[in-house]
Design goal:
5 helices, Major capsid protein gp5 fold, Thrombin, subunit H, single chain, 422 residues
Length: 422
Amino acid sequence: MGWYDDYGASTFGTKSSIDGNNIFYDKKFLETVKNDLVLLGYAQQRPLPEGNGKVIQFFRWLNIAASTSSALLTEGVNPNATVLAGQDLQATILEYGAFAQLTSLLKSSHIDRNVSGASELFGEHAATILDLLTHYQIASNGAFPLAADDAAASKFSNIVDSATATTLVDAELNANSNYGDANDDLNQSVIIITSGTGYGQARIVTDFVTSGGTCTISPAWDVIPVAGDLYTVVTPDEMASGDDLSYSNVKRARTILAKNKARKFPGGSYIGIVSPDAASGLMDDTDWKDVQKNRTDQFGIFKAEIGSLAGVRFVEETNPFTFPIEARGTSGTAGGPGANGANYSSTAAITGIPILGRDAFGATTFRRSAKDVPRPSIIVKTPGPHDTSNPLDRYGTVGWAVPFVVKALNPMHAVQIWIYTG
């Protein structure tokens, strides 16, 4: 596993295209997408039924409270039914795509060569876009934040006083020596509800007001926390050179997932998504296990897997999520991951390394069936007599399009380790 299942797509072209070549372009495009998608393969996958609107509904179960007295059976008597609790989580489907003009399509001898190359390029482009959207969701709303140094000055845990759809209030924040000394102290932080009604939701703090200890968050809560819920808030602004991915913080991430009862993937491990730079440091650790040592008769290795450490199996990808940091108390929201991953920058100082349990997030799938909406498609159009936008047949076009959405389901079942790479 570790990638989308059952790929299927359509390739469209005018009658002047060669039908057999359309299949060839399609395979080029989809194989490239498939090979480049890593993180997305660990989502809870949902097909998109056609004709049912733009909103898809995910669902997450909440753990059953363990009580030995309630589980005690009386001979000959049926026990009371256990009430199962869960939450509906909705997300709106959007469309993504891109196209290019290829003037050499006018020359029939170049059609196959040029569209074949463009199909591979657009396959890489499509995979990168979908992968970034997934990283955005995990970095902003989908994982328990853990700074690599795990410094006490970078985190604070306490009890919610009150909340609205877009705020969380705790008067004790302004009395905390690490936070609350000035307005905007939490502007680049991630806040996560760790217990209570709002359990398992993570959000970006977009504004902090010292008076009353009010955090404004984005996007709105799916389930509004209530007084008495527990929360943790973490900021990356204390991080500096040397805060690297290590055995210590990987073990800490595994411990968090285990304590939160995050389910493991087949083979009995959690999955880490690591960049080549971060992977290089892990491989120097004396406890690092080469990928071949993870293979068993029952379970093989994951796609792009490179090895394991501290109970986490790592797969490598080349598209990590990175974001900038700012000094605490800076007005605005240019630091931190940013709401909906808005502060992503390929040259930023902090890299987020996701450590995943099962069903931490969900995404729409490309699975083919008669009722699915269109899958990722390579769309080829050559000049023709009915194309009024191209009267002199000077160019053809090739591009891709796909409907897609990704949604955090249980951030307590994923950890994002922030490391300094600036």
